[in-house]
Amino acid sequence: MLRPIENVAQRGKVVRKSIVSVIAAALLISGAGTAADASPRTTGGPLVDGTLRDSDPAAPYYLSWSVYSLRNGSHKLTLRATDEVGLQSEISRTIVVDTTAPTVTGLTPAHKAFVRGTFTVRAARVSDAYGVAAVELHVDGKRKGRDTKPPYSFTVKIKQASWFDFYALGKAGNLTSIERHIFVDTQAPAISKIKAPGRGARVRGKVSG
Q1: Are the C-beta atoms of 154 and 139 separated by less than 8 Å?
Q2: Which of 12, 36, 126, 177 is the most exposed place for a label (fewest CB within 10 A)?
Q3: What does 6-42 look like in DSSP terms, one character per residue?
Q4: Which residue has the higher pLDDT, 161 or 28?
Q5: Helical H runs in the chain?
Q6: Distance of CA 202 to CAs 69, 117, 196, 207, Å?
Q7: Residue 74 pLDDT level (bands cut at 50, 70, 90)
């Protein structure tokens, strides 16, 4: 189940909320926890694109830093270990920063639309620069469907006016939430009486009823 980090939905509006995955940093830093040196004290510190971001004077090295100051895209993450005499070792890998939520276009039905009980929720396109992980539809708080591949389409049956939430989750954990109110109309229009022409009447030209 897709779980927003916080309740960011606004009725009838698109809400995008970005979160940052720290998996790439954790993988690198945990590997440095096994570093050993003849010197009793070794300091570890992460560098991003060559710039030192933090330091930890003792193992195991648990280091945190925010990626919001970085542009989206690929970056070089390096963990540098420095001992008391200045000798250094490094290990590097490439990470991808993604702080942008997926984009959803052409979502139907519209906010405050009328439907005939059974209807289809469909998005013309869900896109994310670094991949869409999943899309889910929730109706009145209950999950009704989940797709991991396009087309993103869900058939729903309701008996009364309802709220639906369309969630799109990027592979980095960024979430887009769209909430809409839908009304049900299962009755055909009623015609009480036709004033004219009468039954069996003969007419010509323009007729008004």
Answers
A1: no
A2: 36
A3: S----BTSEEEE-----HHHHHHHHHHTT---SSS-E
A4: 161
A5: 23-32
A6: 80, 41, 11, 10
A7: confident
What does the alpha-carbon distance between residue 80 and residue 53 come to, in Å, rounded to a whole number?
Answer: 11
How does the average pLDDT of the chain come out, rounded? 76
Pairing verdict, β 113-115 and 118-127: unpaired
Q: What confidence score (pLDDT) does residue 32 get?
A: 38
In the block, which residue shows the tokens 């927003």?
A: 4
- 48 with 77: CB under 8 angstroms? yes
Going by their DSSP bridges, the two strands 118-127 and 103-108 should be labelled as antiparallel
Residue 57, by phi and psi: left (phi above 0), alpha (psi -120 to 50) or beta? alpha
Instruction: For each of the domains in the chain, give its residue range(s) and CATH number, in order of start.
Output: 14-18+100-184 (2.60.40.10), 23-97 (2.60.40.10)
